[in-house]
What does this fold into?
Amino acid sequence: AGNWTDGAPEPGETVKFTTAAEITGEFDLGDKTLIIENTATVKNRVVFSGTGGIVIRSNSTSVPFRQEPQNMGSFSGGVRIESGQFSIIYNGSNPTTAGDSSSPVTVVRPARLHFSSWTSRLANDLIIDGNGSTASWQAVYVSNPGETHGTVTANTDFEIGSGYEKFTAKKDVVATGHTITCNMGSYNANFEKKVDASIVWKGKGTLTLSGTSPNADNALELQKGTNVMSSTAVWGGTNIIVKGAGTRLKTSVTSNLSPDAVLRVSDGGLLDISGSASVGELYVDGEKMPSGMYNVENLPSTVVGGVLAVGLTVKTWIGGATG
It folds into this structure.
């Protein structure tokens, strides 16, 4: 117990705190890994240098290992969270860098990354590692607005959860062949760039997609709230589910949806189409709808705006071409 305020760790040293403690000062890791067990708080202006990294093995998710509010130095070995949680806190308008910005932060099952105060921004790339399992767990938790400013990659299904605020991914999110479950309560999530993964949206708020989803196997399942596809979004996945009273899929342009998509709407789900959209098949409460054009007049229980073409080849002629 106590505070660690000076001196360098011995090579490969494991630092154990039996009670919450503070770490301050300057530490050269050399090429070794510093292992921190139990609970610790990295205070402002702490500096770690060297090519080594930091491994966190906390026995608690309620007392975070964190840095406040400055960056943690230039060490280039990355941060690996193997249990407990790593909390990112507010750092003014600048993203927080956990060591050198080119080194990743890795969250390993069952640990989690926590965005904990004001608008917390992580500059580093984020790796989500299932530790040999692909079963979903809450790898990211937001109790204040949280932003990832680096690429997010995952080799597993995982969950983003919120107790209070929104989540924003500023760069690509790549979890090919896996599913991201957004359990956001009443709050929003924004994916501004590519999402190569399936998404299950359980929040009452709004899911906004602005990038591409290039894989036809990427499913989109909306269980609550609203999904807004911005004018730059292109969801290439062919399995789209909208279910639950008031759950709404809202498009901005025709190119938001794949013309090969199979769209399943049930239990009061709604389609709010801006202008027109085209899909391969439409099911409403399990019944396959005939090919044709659907709108608020002929399918008012489902289409609340615009025109949805189902099973039709739709061509947009540019420059007044005819024939």
